[in-house]
Amino acid sequence: MTGFVRSLVLREARLLFRRPAELVNPLIFFALVVALFPLAVGPQAELLRELSPGLIWVAALLAVLLSLDGLFRSDYEDGSLEQWMLSPRPLAVLVLAKVLTHWVISGLALVLLSPVLALMLGLPSQCLGTLILSLLLGTPTLSLLGAIGAALTVGLRRGGLLLALLILPLYIPVLILGSGALQASLQGMSSSGQLLWLGSLAVLTLTLSPFAISAGLRISVGE
After folding, report:
1. pTM of the predicted model, to two decimals?
2. Alpha-carbon separation of residue 151 from 52, 128, 216, 219 (angstroms)
3. How many structural domains does the chain have?
4. In whole angstroms, what separates CA 96 from the centre of its chain?
5. From CA 34, how far away is CA 56, in angstroms rounded?
6. At 157, is the secondary structure helix, strand, or coil?
7. Measured distance CA(71)–CA(78) in Å, rounded
8. Distance (Å, rounded) from C-alpha 120 to C-alpha 111?
9. Composition of the chain by helix, strand, coil, percent to 5
10. Is the sign of the CA dihedral 34, 59, 186, 51 positive or negative?
């Protein structure tokens, strides 16, 4: 099982690097949203600083959602999903390896880009640790929850809108906790409570979402 999962991870990494647009587009979207926002509200440093926690998290949430629309689509089109379902190996393990590989390559890049964009909005440097930690805990949860919607809509030609309608309500707790942690840090308060809740949600989704993703794929493929 370990060798098979390793080969699957390497395969997913190669496929992602062969389609650089799928990796770069969410990052460009994230950067553009944050960069254009000051042009809309004006160069008011205090206002930008106050709005930056919510803005960064909303932009990150939408960027993650943008990257998940085609998560299983190529596997569905070339028949790989059917082979996964016929495999004696647990489908939940396979989809978990795929989603986490996707997050390591695309989501981690988003986390690393966020401090630069946060400084553009005037966020104090002492808040950057909370920003990075909250995104490290929150973005895997967003990816795992979004993968459930991607599994349910994989057979639809234009499933992006339906994916957003299905998943955005599930994203609300992560958005509230992530922006709340950053807001608390900005005000000089402790953000440990919000970060602990983000960690708890990450563990919960890591445990349960692979089974929900597997069920969604079986429904979509018709197995």
Report:
1. 0.89
2. 32, 34, 5, 9
3. 1
4. 14
5. 7
6. coil
7. 13
8. 15
9. 85, 0, 15
10. positive
Per-residue model confidence as pLDDT tens digits over 39-73: 887 778 788 888 888 899 999 999 988 888 778 87
By three-state DSSP, how is residue 52 classified? Answer: helix
In this predicted structure, the answer to whether residue 86 has a pLDDT above a threshold of 70 is: yes
| CA gap 213, 146 in Å, rounded | 9
Buried b (16+ CB within 10 A) or exposed e, 77-111: eeebbeebeeeeeebbebbbbbbbbbbbbbbebbb
In three state form, how does the secondary structure of 38-50 look?
A: HHHHCCCHHHHHH
Tokens encoding 2: 């370990």
Spatial separation of the C-alpha atoms in residues 102 and 97, rounded to whole Å = 9
Which tokens belong to 88? 């004696």
What domain range is 103 assigned to?
2-221
Total length of the chain: 223
Nearest to 16 by CA among 110, 101, 111, 136: 101
DSSP helix/strand/coil, 19 = coil
Q: Which amino acid is at 198?
A: L
Positive or negative torsion for Cα 5, 8, 10, 16: negative
Helix (H, G, I), strand (E, B) or coil at 150: helix
Would you say 196 and 182 are in contact if contact means Cβ atoms under 8 Å apart? no
Q: What is the pLDDT of residue 205?
A: 94
Look at residue 181 in the predicted model and tell me its pLDDT.
93
